[in-house]
Amino acid sequence: MLARMRSIGFVVLSFFITCEQSQYAQIQEKALEVRGSGQKRSRLFRQVDISGSGIDFVHRWNPPAKHRDQLTNAFSGGGVAVGDYDQDGLPDIFICGQINGGQLFKNSGGFRFINQSSVLEPPAPVGTWATGASWADIDNDGWLDLYVCGFDCPNRLYMNRPQGNQRVLVESARSLGVDFSGASIIGTFADYDRDGDLDLFVLTNRLPVPDSLLNEPFSLSRGPKGEPVLPEAFRQYADVIVLPDGKGLKKIDAGQYDHLYRNEGPGKPFKEVTSEAGMRGNHYGLSATWWDWNQDGWPDLYVANDFYGPDRLWTNNGPGAGGVVTFTDMTRESLPHTPWFSMGSDIADVNNDGWMDLLATDMAGSTHYNEKMQMGNMSGSDSDAWFLNHPVPPQYMRNALYLNSGTENFMEVAQLYGVSKTDWTWSVNFGDLDNDGWEDLFVTNGMSRDWLNSDLRARAPSKDGWDRYYDFWYAQKPLLQTNRVFRNQGGLKMQESGIEWGLDKNSVSFGSVLTDLNGDGDLDVVVNNFGGAPSLFENTSTTGHRIVVKLVGTKSNRFGVGSTVTVRPANSEQRLTRYLTSARGFMSCPEPSLHFGLGDQKEIESLTVAWPSGYRQSFENLSANRQYTITESATVPKEESSPNKKSLFAASHQLKGIRHRERPYDDFARQPLLPYKHSQLGPGIVFADVDGDHLEDFYLAQAAGIPGRIYFRRKKPDKTGNVFEVRGLDPFRQHAACEDITPLFFDADNDGDPDLYVVSGGVEGSVGAPVFKDRLYLNDGKGNFSMAPKTALPDVSVSGGPAAVADFDKDGDLDIFVGGRVVPGRYPETPHSLLLRNDTRSGSVRFSDVAPEAKLDALGMVTAAVWADTNGDTWPELIVATEWGPVQVFQNIEGSLRRVTAKAGLDKLTGWWSSLAAGDLDQDGDIDLVAGNVGLNTKYKATDSKPELLYYGDFDGTGKPRILEAKFEGSVCLPHRGYSCSSNAMPGLRSKLPTFHSFAIKSLEAIYSQSRLEKARRFEANALESGIFINDGSGRFSFVQLPHVAQAFPVNSIVIKDLTNDDKLDIYLAGNSSSPQRETGNMDGGISLLLKGNGLGSFQAVWPNESGLAVPGNARGLALTDLNGDSKLDIVVSINDGELRAFEAQ
After folding, report:
1. Cis peptide bond prior to 122, omega within 30° of 0
2. Rounded Cα–Cα distance for residues 129 and 59 (Å)
3. Residue 19 above 50 pLDDT?
């Protein structure tokens, strides 16, 4: 067939059927092997009988006495590396083990292998401990070399050399300067400096403290930022961290330094350049993954570190002064949180948008029982739970799937995809297992012992007697868990398919790779198991077209590691992207080739290779079911960087330095089982021209202890670019103790200028305390504000939330609805809401609360409110959103409000509604609604039949009401909170349920009794999705979920406006929450989202790199204003405890 290559400036028609070097790009094709018998099997994978495969490797655990403690660590397992070392067309397998240095198995076809360890010269010394291994062509001779890491022994580098008519692997690590001896996990290769050869990063973990240091005295010094630092001799064994609020120091175990080695060319020793490259850290490394997350052509590195160690997103800066390539850790800037015990990691373009995403795993239990058994104590001297929210970013015990937004900020969507809890997960591998065009996920699970079993931990002897401690654990059984696989369904969804596909093996599995072992173009699975033989799974797929791509670099490294290959199937909008990297998962490395599933597409419109050298080649009109070998052409000009497509908005610095500051407050002291804090619900922000200069000013709410303030617009910016200034804190200073929630500018006294109403909220005070009184500030027309007379507002102290103004009675002045948000210390009791009728007369400002007569005073916990004429009678209806309730509608009948929620079709959907906006979304002449909810990217899941539940009552006979959150697993109702938290709040539970196991196996009814649950107040949420309510014209609504990506975060604020300049209304959402209790963790997966409307009520996400809108953090308020005087509406977002974010329309 004919392959057409497109290049910059010229077109070459060429097809090569030999390996002969040419001045032009080469592409060779080979038909893939015929698949099996053609009969479709009941399960996608067939487990190969390992005893008949020729693989006689058995993982045995028999460490020397000095290392028996390693049973607790990652070194109890081993990795696997796959590569065709002898170039016979079949990939061979190297398997790592604790006692034999690892073994090499030559692939002879048909899932038959021959132990070829004899080609390793010299043989590894007896007892050599092999951990992880990687194949890579170190010297660009076209033959794969092998790097094998070890524990407490030198790492080995086997160079692939000819010997007669065969190949041998000659150990050369010492001569090449990479024989590091310590606690190595994996060596992973990339051409980080893009000089054409592969460099090496060695990831390390921890060695025991040498006897010479055990009783050695030392003193701390201070680092450049004042942080405590141990002497260098101790740094790779111990460290100290500062406890929360600076309350002392805590000694922690440390890991060894990782090492970056630069390849100096064939035959020359590598050079250790870790410090030169700006890398640092002494942590427990468990995986390291090279990728190019920002598509700048320079390889970046994600390092997953266990326990207290922070993960690192080492971002390649490219060459700086003197041509030195350095890295910057972007974890704080780019990731909202990381796993706590980070383990395996892997990359894939999971949503086929052309950007590489990454999954880092932890060991969160996938079932209620597993979760509750491993949760441990959440308080006390033996608890580490304080650490969850202590680091920046926070570390949570769950997997993290980082969805690349094309900006500096990632979305974290593991819970949205359903892959946040996969048990004790070691290796994680992405690959298109069913060839449908979407990369699926395979994970290995299990552990040498059930170290997180809270009951076993309580029974284990004290660590003061180490021999007794380890004798106890060695007497326990290994923790066998099921390996799991998730089928990528597209649309940001995955479905567990292990049983269906035949990959649900119950074992203790560590390293694994996905690779094509028999040349049929389907991905098979290789797994290294603890204490037994490895597992092989043959992919028996008979459906789905596919291709395999192998690369031959000329200017780039020989196997094209670091290349990005993009495939566009014919007659499809899909764009399939793969990045060729080295080590993947845990301690493992797949063959250096790329697999693409194509579904039912038999033809490929285009295939593009972006080489590490900067060259780019494209081919068109290719057939499926082929293996393509592409040789880099050095004659094709390098791709010139094209200017980025202009985004809709660009970040503005006009509000630089203006921020909200939160004062820490412990909401859980009064209610330890509270789902989340209510002291962090601000700040609101509102714009208006308050001084009559035709420039909009704004008020930014502040937390309790800090006065709010008005920022006046200047004519010219200051040195930072900021164009706003504060002209004084009066009269707001006197109310600094109040927690500002919602500010409103409106003309309260009918004098033609905007006055300011501020809702006081939060929980930092007792019920009825003066700090919960709302405030009204009157404007003199020049921007000078004074407190309204005490008689202007009712003498009511309510912790409020939302507020909305409208002339609901059409008497010519503006009235206010204020939603009661929470009763301090008594969540979820119903607070009082206010309907403040404006009774101002003859300059005497007065508002009267008419909520009781309108039956609006007890609406529940109100989170949002809008006025909108939903039935077309010109009288504005009141719509309110509630937590643990529906969106409610009150019809305005000539100034009288009547609840019509059921008539409006809204009474059946109960949720944690959090925001509202109104507009004619489908352009049919009536007002529709957008309602924000908590979304689907949290631990909470709800349906009509299995809602989320909350009970409030006396559950322990003390007379004090408590909170119980409940969920369903199958048909059984279970508590959300764990044994430790629950029994700390209700100590009587310990006599009834003395162990974690006894608590974990019980239903909610069995723990607290059916009679007490029936006496308690019951709240229900059956819908957690954000969505739109489409109005049929009569005021009756139907609910439609917003796009799935919009469910990635709680939506706190909504703007409806034409933001894409097509005369159709769009929706902009901002949100996240840093308030949940620490078992739940922050709900911070979003970075805001623009949804483009089609004018018919449907919306499509505009990706952040296209919209220019990326807002990490706990976004609470939105405002539209013209910041730069171009008559276009710009966007300002307020962040809890953060700096304002501003974006100018382009």
Report:
1. yes
2. 11
3. no
User: How many Å apart are CA 1090 and CA 562, to the nearest integer?
Assistant: 33
pLDDT of 21 > 70? The answer is: no
Terminal Cα-to-Cα distance of the chain (whole angstroms): 47
Q: With residue 120 as reference, give the H or E element that holds it.
A: strand 120-121
Q: How many CA atoms lie within 13 A of 221 on its CB side?
A: 7
CB neighbour class for 579 (10 Å; exposed up to 12, middle 13-18, buried from 19): buried
Q: 553, 557, 551, 555: which is closest to 198 by C-alpha?
A: 557
Confidence at residue 46, expressed as pLDDT on a 0 to 100 scale: 96
The pLDDT tens digits of the residues spanning 803-859 come to 999 999 999 999 999 999 999 999 999 999 999 999 999 889 999 999 999 999 999
Q: Does residue 659 or residue 639 have the better pLDDT?
A: 659
Does 731 sit behind a cis peptide bond, omega within 30 degrees of 0 on the bond before it?
A: yes
Say whether 561 sits in a helix, a strand or coil.
Answer: coil
Rg of the chain over CA atoms, in angstroms? 32
Which of these, 91, 6, 109, lies nearest to 54 by C-alpha position? 109
pLDDT at residue 246, rounded to an integer: 75
From the list 103, 78, 100, 101, the residue with the least C-alpha distance to 92 is: 103
> What are the strands, taking DSSP E only, across 732-838?
739-746, 755-761, 775-779, 785-787, 800-806, 815-820, 834-838
Q: CA angle at residue 305 from 300 to 309, to 5 degrees?
A: 115
Side chain identity, residue 573: E
> For residues 489 and 1007, what is the distance between their CA atoms, to the nearest angstrom?
38
Q: How far is CA 202 from CA 183, 205, 261, in A?
A: 10, 10, 8
**Predicted local distance difference test score (pLDDT) of residue 638:** 63
Q: What is the pTM of this model?
A: 0.96
> Does the pLDDT value for residue 8 go beyond 70?
no
Helix (H) or strand (E) holding 983: helix 979-985
Q: Which residues contact 665 (CB under 8 A, 6 or more apart)?
A: 677, 679, 704, 762, 763, 764
Residues whose CB falls within 8 Å of the CB of residue 497, separated by 6 or more in sequence, listed in order: 440, 485, 486, 487, 503
Q: What average pLDDT does the chain have?
A: 94
Mean pLDDT of the 525-547 span: 97
Strand partners, 304: 287
Token pair 């276009």: residue = 1128
pLDDT at residue number 23: 34
Cβ pair 30, 627 in contact under 8 A: yes
**CA–CA separation, 298 vs 199, rounded Å?**
13
Q: Is 200 exposed, middle or buried (0-12, 13-18, 19+ CB in 10 A)?
A: buried
CA angle 857, 863, 866 (to 5 degrees): 80
Please state, in angstroms and as integers, the Cα–Cα distance from residue 334 to each residue in 286, 832, 1076, following that order. 21, 41, 21
pLDDT tens-place string over residues 90-147? 999 999 999 889 999 999 999 999 999 999 999 999 889 999 999 999 999 999 999 9
Paired tokens of 378: 């959440």
Q: Where are the beta strands (DSSP E) in 177-245?
A: 181-190, 199-204, 221-222, 228-229, 238-242
- 829: Cα within 13 Å, side-chain hemisphere: 13
* pLDDT tens per residue, range 991-1014: 999 999 999 999 999 999 999 999
